[in-house]
Amino acid sequence: MKHLIQISDLSEQEIDELISLADDILQDSARYREALRHKTLATLFFEPSTRTRLSFESAMLELGGNVLGFADPNSSSATKGESVADTIRTVECYADIIAMRHPKEGAPLAASMKSRVPIINAGDGGHHHPTQTLTDLFTIKREKGRLTNLVVGLCGDLKFGRTVHSLVHAMSRYDGITFVLISPEELTLPDYLTEGPLKRDNVRVAATNSLVSTLGELDVLYMTRVQRERFFNEADYVRLKDSYILNRAMLEHAKPDLAILHPLPRVNEIAADVDDDPRALYFRQMFYGKIIRKALLISLMRNYECLK
Ligand code: NCD
Predict the structure, then answer these.
(1) Can you give the pLDDT at residue 79?
(2) Virtual CA dihedral for 75, 50, 7, 76, nearest 10 degrees?
(3) 1 has pLDDT over 90
């Protein structure tokens, strides 16, 4: 694999290998301090980001590499009308690997078709977010000890949430997964996912609009933000934004070893009184995000060196 555009670019074996490498990095980070010395990562973020961009940059720096990029797309030549293809032809002269986030679905794929150096999709519109999924899988593996035989609740904006879409693609391939899809009628999972991976892999699926009634059955609860930037009108967003607010009292109905995940940022969907509950893993999850991104950077650079 040269680029990572969607999670299905990785086989289960490749995901296992990344998780093992990330485990090793966690155990002995000093051994990897020079792993990407003299290599440069460019971060091209055409949409806002805190965790994804900074975790990529901090991962690269901790591996002894360099980073460059722009934090504000308005300061790039994209505002002058430059195409993604030309931007990539430019940046590949200055960097060995590129992480790109773009509001247009397919932009990182288009970039990968022109690029000499590896492209990592750091989120494209409402489509894919494979490195968040690696983060989610690594978190579940570390905290639950397995990626099989789990009841996984996906709650919130299942229509526009790209992290949910990539996670569905990934987890459908593991044995014994049951998805509980918890969303308002207007924000249900797109048909291309229910008719695609969920049907193809014969995944058990239940759908509901009630979080409370289903909380007790879940091993993993994946909360998400209603994706304001993907709505066509503000009134719909305002009506739907507080559809689910998880609070501490509700957790009385949950399993004692429930894993509560959230890709973050949260807006209102998890009350602050949940943060101290040992089942709240979303802050640890973003730490794991940096570690698995280190594993990914090392592995893509190794493959690239072999292919050159
Ligand atoms: C997510 C994203 O950008 O899709 N954030 C992230 O990368 N951790 C989730 C979101 O913005 O709601």
Answers:
(1) 82
(2) 0
(3) no
Of 3, 39, 40, 52, which is the active-site residue?
52
Cβ 169 vs Cβ 7: under 8 Å = yes
Ligand 1, atom 7: nearest CA belongs to which residue?
52
The preferred substitution site among 163, 167, 187, 228 for testing ligand 1, maximizing ligand atoms within 8 Å of CB, is: 163
**Rounded CA separation 73/141 (Å):** 35
Question: Would you call 131 a catalytic residue per the annotation?
Answer: no
Tell me what pLDDT residue 76 has. 83
Kindly list the protein residues whose Cβ atom lies closer than 6 A to any atom of ligand 1: 51-52, 123, 129, 132, 162-163, 225, 263-264
Strand pairing category for 204-208 and 150-155: unpaired
Residue 114 annotated among the catalytic residues of the structure: no
Q: Whole-number mean pLDDT of the chain?
A: 96
β-bridge pairing 119-124 and 150-155 = unpaired
pTM: 0.97
**Which of ligand 1's atoms lies nearest the C-alpha of 227?**
12
Which ligand 1 atom lies nearest to the CA of residue 101? 3
Q: Which of 39, 53, 128, 129 is catalytic?
A: 129
- For domain 130-285, which CATH number applies: 3.40.640.10, 2.60.40.4070, 3.40.50.1370, 3.30.460.80? 3.40.50.1370
Q: Do domains 7-128+289-307 and 130-285 have the same CATH topology?
A: yes
Instruction: Give the separation between CA 156 and CA 244, rounded to whole angstroms.
Output: 7
Task: Tell me whether the omega of the peptide bond preceding residue 278 falls within 30 degrees of 0, making it cis.
Answer: no
